[in-house]
Amino acid sequence: MGGSVRLFGTAGIRGRYLRKVTPLLAFQVGLALAGYVGSGGSIVVAHDVRTTSPLLASMAASGVMAGGVDAILVGQAPLPAASYSVVRSGSKAGIMVTASHNPPWDNGIKIVDGKGMELTRIEEEELESIIEAGVEGYLADWNSVGILRIEREMLSYYMEDIIARASVKGGGDLSVAVDCANGAASGVTPIILRSIGVSRVYTLNCHPDGHFPGRHPEPRPDVLKPFIKASSALGVHAFIAHDGDADRTALGVPGYGFVKQDLVIALLAWWKLREKRGSVVVSVDVGSEVEEVVEELGGSIIRSRLGKIHEKLLQEADAVLAAEPWKLIDPDWGLWVDGIYQAALIAHISLSTRKSPRELLDMLPYYPSARVSYVLGGENERDRLYEQVVEELSHSLTGSAVGILPIDGVRIDYEDGSWLLVRKSGTEPKLRVYAQAREEERLVNLLARVHRIVAETASRAGIRLSSKEEHISLPPGGSRGFRGRNALL
């Protein structure tokens, strides 16, 4: 283990197979989790489509049984279905072998508690301490080892429950293209959409393949652009894409192309707040569109660290939704991130309102925004540059600020409605910059000032910027406010 490198990152354990993630580690995690939850009961084990995943899942299940806990092996399944299986089976916890949207040579292990929710940072640290201290003391004697229970029908139960929840009687004229990245949702999301009433469902990259031959499994705008273009030739109303284990969902719509995630979250918040008032938990990088919709409908915004919306959700008893880009938790459905449920909910909203996804998006506010990544040589350079840039920002760009939020990087909100966020990537040697403004000119000026600060700070510190990745999202037809205040209420 080495002790100096943290095992759990922002999304469980993840890394190159045989370098960081090994069969021995999977066994140790299974045994440590069995010791952590206590003997007796069961732990669910599932895996994604990666070539190494069945092996690692078998090793994790062996560790669970060696610790005196039954292992319920559900086989290949999307991550949200694994969380669902924990709750349905009354298990103490769950282990999902997955590296989500990472390349095929990586793998990982994600652990959820008895509610299907990802472990908190404190729980991860406690489990990591057990592994670092050595797990041999948790081995059960011959007459106390757990048994292996194979329950592959759990995936069918998961699908049936979503269908029952999202079906719209009579269906409607809604056509959707689905891209599952050759991942674990390949035989799941298309079937669910057809079953809830979508009139036509076309599939792209929906045969499971751990080499991910169709595309990179991360549903980013640059990755999905050719597939959105291809789907437009089919004349569909929407294009829906997942990552490898289907906790993420991206949306493409004619006239919008790749739909900015803030609009997707705003749409889902609008729908949930129609049912009842409450708070909406969002990550610190979520934009003004969501805040405007939530506040107009009498809700309140609660901001969280990226990747930790589930922790903040636990603190908000009245939360109707928790979301960050690509990810959704609906407490009425379950306490886990669920991209398949999100896809079904988007279709359900369209079918229920008899409005196309384009018509639904047109009623939402939309403001210019940007996401920029400065690529550096390593984590030490990233950390040094971040500290110095934040110090420089505090001198240069806080003059007209009405709020400064330092929970995950530093977010600065300005009196004109624009905002800026600078943070370190939790998984890569990159400095992230997020910005938004009511008008394009203000956004361009804000980005130029930040870029000058980053470049000059890096030069003074002798830090080389390898490259800059930039994505700017501009609303078609210009900025607009919320048009759906009274729509269908």
TrEMBL record:
Question: Is-annotated flag, keyword Isomerase?
Answer: yes
Q: Which residues cross the membrane?
A: 21-46
Record GO terms (molecular function) = magnesium ion binding; phosphoglucosamine mutase activity
Entry's CDD domains?
Answer: PGM_like1
Please report the stretch or stretches of sequence annotated as the Alpha-D-phosphohexomutase alpha/beta/alpha domain: 6-133, 158-250, 262-364
Which Pfam families does the record associate with it? PGM_PMM_I, PGM_PMM_II, PGM_PMM_III, PGM_PMM_IV
- Any GO BP: carbohydrate metabolic process
In residue numbers, the region (Disordered) covers 470-489
Which UniProt keyword terms apply here?
Isomerase, Magnesium, Membrane, Metal-binding, Phosphoprotein, Transmembrane, Transmembrane helix
Q: So which cofactors does this thing need?
A: Mg(2+)
Domain (Alpha-D-phosphohexomutase C-terminal): residue spans on this chain:
402-450
- Record's family? Belongs to the phosphohexose mutase family.
Output this protein's name.
Answer: Phospho-sugar mutase
Q: Which species is listed as the source?
A: Aeropyrum camini SY1 = JCM 12091
